[in-house]
Fold this sequence. Notes:
Chain A has helices spanning 49-56, 81-86, 103-113, 119-132, 148-160, 178-193, 205-211, 229-234, 239-254, and strands spanning 11-20, 23-33, 38-42, 64-69, 72-73, 88-91, 166-170, 198-201, 214-219, 222-227. By secondary structure, chain A is of the alpha/beta class.
Amino acid sequence: MEKHLGNEPILTIENLKKSFGELEVIKDVSLAIEPKEVVVIIGPSGTGKSTMLQCVNLLTKPTAGKIYLENQEITAPSINADKVRQRIGMVFQEFNLFNHLTAIENVTIGMTKVLGMKNTEARNKGMYELERVGLAEQATKYPSQLSGGQKQRVGIARALGMDPHIMLFDEPTSALDPELTGEVLNVMRKLALEGMTMMVVSHEMSFAREVADRIIFMDEGYIVEQGSPHKLFNNPKSERTRRFLSMIGSINREK
Amino acid sequence: MNESLLFMQRIIPELLQGTKVTIQLTFGSLFLGFAIGLLAALIRVYGNRWLQRVVIGYVNIVRGTPLMVQLFVVYYGLPDVGLTLSRMTAAYITLGLNSSAYQAEYFRGAIQAVAHGQMLAARAIGMSRLKAIRFIILPQALRLALPVWSNEMIAMVKYTAVVFLIAVPDLMGKAKIISSRYFDPIATYIAVAIIYLVLVAIATLILRMINKKLNIPEGALDGVRR
């Protein structure tokens, strides 16, 4: 899949470190993501993949290092974190839909309360976003009335409603039954084709192989290896990458 | 028996005057208790450590002392420090503050029952903490709190009776006056009991209406309990 990537990175991470008390989760990570690039981050659990996404979205404060979004340092003390988060879409493993709101209200509440959009305008845009994820018919349902896959698609629509410049996916299919992951991955595939910049933490290897422009393998708080899916899956350089891939491969075969 | 009914009929108008005061006290105190209780609960969950301690102290003192003692302190005690309140004001303040401590605990529990992920997701779409609390956390927390809050409302109808001790002319106060005027306490207090029953029934109906209005599909918020 050839894609024309811009030259200026949309997101740059420089020497990111994050500790929780004594525990060093991210030891030293530097990384640049170009516009329209789809980066899939893989690695054993507890190696700081999700923490890195939370740092990028300023939901967690880095211990050290700098993060730039479109040439603006978002880790600077003077930055308005709420404004930064409006430009970054986040999709959670546990969906985190607002339980007291219908699907459409989940999508529009950010538009009306954060962006100050008018109700009718927000409603139109909200319906458009729900259509994008194939859930226009479920607009008036509450999260408790939706399946896991549908919930996650609403979660994606909610993030898209804010017109993010980059989307972060934190294991978006890990909480789903296997038969429901497909519908979520299809939506993500479509987004990638539309040119959305995406940073995805996931163990869906076939998705990564097919959609990712670049795979990053993280282990013990470092980036161990990165490259195109073809290079990383077929010809991993590091022994640790090889071991992880064969482990994941055997799990995937068992499914 | 017939005599008793006639007697009740005669005292009803005066009892209804008292009932009006009881209703005012119930709603006034619930409202005051709601405002202070909600604020206290928010401080307890989101406030800084010192404010939290102040709230914990306040809640423990109010919940740990009898309502009657609180009423006497406010009405008879405060004049000693130069603050003299009218009977009605003392009644509102005592009942309102008393209720606020209980409501604070109900609301705190409900706020904490809303999953952490709700706040994360709200912040992730760019909401400030204040907006997230207002539009995402509180609407869920208040719904979760409604069942226990219902008890508070029904209890409050009856708690107000304590104010007859400082001669507030509420339902109970009127009953005391009437029973000593006509020397027929049994018939008087039976009439009073019936009026309280009716008030509680009305309160239950109001709560049922609120519950219906706020209703979102059954179990919709259960998933948020952790």
